[in-house]
Structure formats: structure tokens, C-alpha cells
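One such shown below:

_____
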Amino acid sequence: MTVFLARGAEENRDMNCRGIAKKLEAQSNAKNVAGMARFGINPKNTFGVSMPALRIIAREIGKNHKLALELWQTGIHEARILAGLVDAPELVTKKQMDNWASGFDSWDVCDQVCMNLFDKTPFAFDKARQYAQKEREFIKRTGFALMASLAVHDKKAESSQFVEFFPFIVKASTDERNFVKKAVNWALRQIGKRNLKLNKQAVKIAKEIQATDSKAAKWIAADALRELTSAAVQKRLSKSPMTGPFGG
């Protein structure tokens, strides 16, 4: 299959699925893989290629939906992150989102796909609510990672759309699994940094969660309140109705 660069119709024979896989393998770094594992990243089928390097490859490829699907099927860790970078959101289907979410086995792949692709699809809000109610750890994380990504990237969304996420955040706040509770916290913080109105509501929700008899809930609430009530966040929100820089 021939892939065309974003800047034109020039052929690049190395930019097919097999060529890209070979390029990723050529950049493999065992030391990086070991370091990633220490941060909870699944080392299976991982080459240890850095995100800056993956972004360079993604820019060389441009948007290519068919190639993205092929890259995902390789099962290679970095190829799956790359798939999220090069896929075209308007061509993504609900079935594809479900298939990919079911295949997440590492928090970084989950988060990168949510931030770079899923949150730009027309189904993003519906899927965030759907996945947040699932039991499987990484599918559930997908729901909250998607909420966090939407809070930052969808500048046209109404505050009411994010208020609808709060009941899901409250319900999941007692989930003790590390990858879930961190995503729940992330979603709460990002929604609360979107504007002053949502900040006040997020702080209220955090205090409600804090009163829950759960270690996970207390950690989620304390960490969120620390940031949402900080002088820096309050000052920034008082000057602008939108959120500041993205952060996990």
C-alpha cells in the first residue's frame, strides 16, 4: 500500500505498514523499555521509541486512515500510538473505537489515542460515558481519559456537557485500581480547570468524594482539591474562561 505525505502526493515507499514497523524496530532501545516498565507501561511488544520520534514519523506520514488500521493490527506498542496520531477522526467508526479500546493494555497507548484521536470523533462524549461504566480496567480508564481530553481540546463544548460527567466520576471514585483512579482524578482536575463555573462545581464534587470511606476516593479528592483550589489555577481562571495547559 502506498502512503502519501500530507504536503503532497509524493510516494514514499518506506511509509507502508511493513516499512514503518522496520523503522520502529531499528530505533529500539532496551534501556528505554526498562524505564517505561518502571512507570507502569506494558513492555510487551514495545521497542522503547520516544514520543518525539513517533511524532516525527507521524508528520512524515500525514493522515491515513487505512494505514492507521494496519498499524493497529501489528500489535506493536509504538505502532498503536502512531495509529492514533495518523488516523483521520472523521473516518473513525464507533466499532473501531470499541475494538481499539478493548485492545488497550497500557495506560500510555490509551491516553495517547484518546488525546490524539478519540476526542476528535463525533462520538467522543457518548463513548466517554459508555466506557466509564465498563468493568475492564483499561476500557474504564478510556472513559475518563476521554473526559479529560475533551475538557482541554473541545473548546466549543458547553459546560453542561461536562457537568454530565460528574456522576460517573463520583461513582468510579471508589475504584482502587491504579490506572482507573488516576484517570478519574485526571478527568476531575481537567474539567475543573476549564472555567470558573466548572471549577466551583468540580471542587464541590471533590469534597463530596472526599467524604467517602474509600482510600481511592480520598486520594482522588485530595489531589484534585490541591490543584483546583490553588492560587495559580484560581488566578488563571479569573482571567480566562477556558483552561490552561494540558496535564495528566
Remarks:
- Residues 107-248 form a domain with the Leucine-rich Repeat Variant fold (CATH 1.25.10.10).
